[in-house]
């Protein structure tokens, strides 16, 4: 079973874990060994709304860190975008920004929560 974590527990971001579980089940339904942490920061470098880091073996990545900015216009959509990058890393070891932008809205609508 995949494991999802929040790096900051002082604020209730549990809805992000719920959304990520939905997104990852949709993107990688057969993968059960991913370990993904989410950190939410006031701001990210270069004004980014989010980014994903592969923290594991480049040939078979299983451990990731997703950073999200509180200044994100739509944090759920940003999370969906970053989850797409996780799926890209797992499948090909690389990412495609155009593909992530093209599919983030559709994926984000699968989460009906907060």
Q: Which percent range describes the beta-strand content?
A: 15-25%
Order of strands, widest sheet: 1-2-4-3
**Count of helix runs:** 3
**End-to-end Cα distance:** 24 Å
Q: Given the C-alpha coordinates, what overall shape results?
A: globular
Average pLDDT: 92
| Main sheet properties | 4 strands, mixed
Category from helices, strands and their pairing: alpha/beta
- Any idea what the radius of gyration is? 13 Å
Total beta strand runs? 4
Pattern of helices and strands: EHEEEHH
Describe the structure.
By secondary structure, the chain is of the alpha/beta class. Helices cover 39% and strands 20% of the residues. The chain is built from three helices and four strands. The chain is globular.
Main attributes?
39% helix, 4 strands, 3 helices, 114 residues, globular, alpha/beta
Architecture blueprint of SSEs:
Blueprint lengths: L2 E4 L7 H14 L7 E7 L8 E5 L8 E7 L5 H18 L4 H12 L6
Parallel strand pairs: 1-2, 2-4
Antiparallel strand pairs: 3-4
Helix pairs in contact: 1-2, 2-3
